[in-house]
Prior knowledge:
By secondary structure, chain A is α+β, with helices and mostly antiparallel strands. Helices cover about 45% and strands about 15% of the residues of chain A. Chain A has three helices and four strands, in the order αααββββ. By secondary structure, chain B is of the alpha/beta class. Chain B contains 13 helices and eight strands.
Amino acid sequence: MFKNILKRKSSREIAKDRLKILLISDRVNCSPEMMEMIKNDIAKVISKYMKIDAQSMEIQITKTSGKGRNLKNPTLYANIPILDLHTLKN
Amino acid sequence: MSEVIVVTSGKGGVGKTTTSANVGTGLAAMGKKVILIDTDIGLRNLDVVMGLESRIVYNLVDVVEGNCRIKQALVRDKRYPTLFLLPSAQTRDKSAVNPAQMVKMITHLRDQFDYIILDCPAGIEQGFQNAIAGADRALVVTTPEVSAIRDADRIIGLLEANEIQKIDLIINRIRYDMIRRGDMMSSDDVVDILSIPLLGLVPDDENVVIATNQGEPLVGSNTLAGQAYQNICYRVSGKEVPFLDFERGISFWTKISGIFHRS
């Protein structure tokens, strides 16, 4: 029980964490539908060259590490699990 | 050189009108020529906060539509002879004025005043567009709450897109007791998230409610909020004022214990 009290996040930290995630999606102004379309297109292109697990693939837009509000260059991260590197090579 | 300042926030009820009234009054107390313009057409409030509601004859819409000259619509403040209010219209709606008309009016006012302060309505529609149209710089008001910060972030994005050169942050209604308990985001947290320069920290002070009841801005008075607004006015006018202990929420006892910790 004592451990739980120590582990519990303060509401300040919860607010900060929620805002950080919320503002990234607010700032890039990219709808979930559009993200899905980008994801499918990336999967299609990569699939030409290697076998990937399109189901568990993830894409995400994140803030660049640079300071300030300059969000003109946020970064798109794609996490694509590769099932087999050689299958489609000929 | 005159400066046109828009006071905005996105979310309603965070203290735009109180900030406008206090910054305007504080700058006038420093001897500057100041005009406060209420751009919230349909929901005017700045007149009541200033205690000038009984002196209104014409309003912003009358000026824009040419029903009167600007001079006729200006209400002179009770306390400071260099402070004027241009009230908004209560019985019209936001579409009665457009950004081009605002720019034209502000251009005309520039050579008569040192500071033109625009109290922006909540939201991001026409009223917001009107208020920011002629502005040189913006004061973004927020409170340390998730919803207010989210809206402030959106507003900052829109201000940047409209090429407002200087955007500064005022954090209002700070409760230091809650910050110490870990139940409120600190000013550093908010600045970290919004990433714009900090201009002022205003503690949650019941004197603000009392001052609004009386229609007397409390800037410069011997209250926490009064001193906080005074410092904001100095910073607006370009004077460098360090953030005071009370603004950061450092009490006398925290300081004493700090001395003991060090030794």
